[in-house]
Amino acid sequence: MSVRVLILHEQRLFREGLRAVLHGRGDLDVVGDTADSATALLLIGETSPDVMVFELWNLARLPRAAHGPPLVALGEDGDRPQVARALQAGVAALVTKSDSPEELAAAIRAAAAGRIYVTPRLCAPGTPLVLQAAPAFGDPLRALTSREREIFTLVISGLSTAAIARRLDLSPRTVETHRGHLSHKLGARSAADLVRFAARTGLLPS
């Protein structure tokens, strides 16, 4: 089953270039393209895209449909400081215009599957950030329970499992269980992954 893609970009040649790039991948189908936000809203209703690709600088003027598709943002290599703001605003995937067509395709597929994807060019240490839960507007932790949120905050603050257990009056085994659940939901394999996620989504304690 193909992923239906809508393209929003002001330059016609750029839109046609993206069409050509995506057309060569059998599972990606461009169902429409436009230069303006108002038309994008109409096309969302008419074509029911699975993903919309747009340029990151246009985030503030992006159309907000009640049941809009996941968003894939195209940025520049120097846009790393914008990653957290974009994720908090509801963007599901970020790539740069220096990335390969394969990287863009991977980001589109991830967004369509409900995951967060950030290209290695916009995150350290040089590997893609891929998380299982796509962000809700303004709430990157919406998939977690209140206890998992509490433990997430303590983990990214640098506390060990034993210290968290003492702080919350829980057994270390219970804390490990909650850590496993929240890590699975966020697609993190280690405490370092959780810290990187917190940094990119603006949740890291100052």
Task: Give an overview in words.
It contains eight helices and seven strands; from the N terminus they run βαβαββαβαββαααα. The chain is of the alpha/beta class and 206 residues long. It has two domains: 3-131, Response regulator (Rossmann fold, 3-Layer(aba) Sandwich); 146-200, Arc Repressor Mutant, subunit A (Orthogonal Bundle). The protein has a seven-stranded mixed β-sheet with strand order 2-1-3-4-5-6-7, with helices on both faces. The longest helix is centred in the C-terminal third of the chain and has 15 residues, at 172-186.
Question: Main traits of this protein?
Answer:
206 residues, alpha/beta, Rossmann fold, Arc Repressor Mutant, subunit A, seven-stranded mixed beta sheet, 8 helices
